[in-house]
Amino acid sequence: MTSLFDNKRTNIVIGTLGGIFIILLIVFAVLRGRQKGPAITPGAPTPTAVPQALADEPQPGVEYETIDVDVAKREIIVGALVRKLPTKGTNFSMRYSYADNIFYTIIKAANKAAGDKEFNEYLKMNKINDRKWIPNLTVTYE
Fold first, then answer.
1. Is the pLDDT of residue 90 over 70?
2. Strand partners, 138
3. Is 119 exposed, middle or buried (0-12, 13-18, 19+ CB in 10 A)?
4. pLDDT of residue 34
5. Is cis: bond before 86, omega within 30 of 0?
6. Considering the entire predicted model, what is its pTM?
7. What SS3 state is found at 66?
8. If DSSP codes are grouped into helix, strand and coil, which group holds residue 84?
């Protein structure tokens, strides 16, 4: 019995087909590996994108909320105060409740004037010039 590969002509055809198959695999691998992008002709001007309007630029017909810079600075200062609480002085104590979003201040009723003065000095020491800067401030005299 003779094998298929005993014929010289069959071996040449199989070898040729195998070679063509390998070449096609290499070509497809190379083509697949290339990144697709715009064709650039040498000497032609480089295409440029027209920048869109930046998000922070005002757009016509759009309403914007304005922020008072002084109020924003006060909120930053009050936020710094929150990190220093709770605190206790001679005639007052102050704490902040995260759950309630309330500043609780207790001033000794027996030394009301001294407690108010000490509390105001504490606020000024923390760059807060007025109690009104502190939202949800409760002051209790006990």
1. yes
2. 104
3. buried
4. 67
5. yes
6. 0.53
7. coil
8. coil
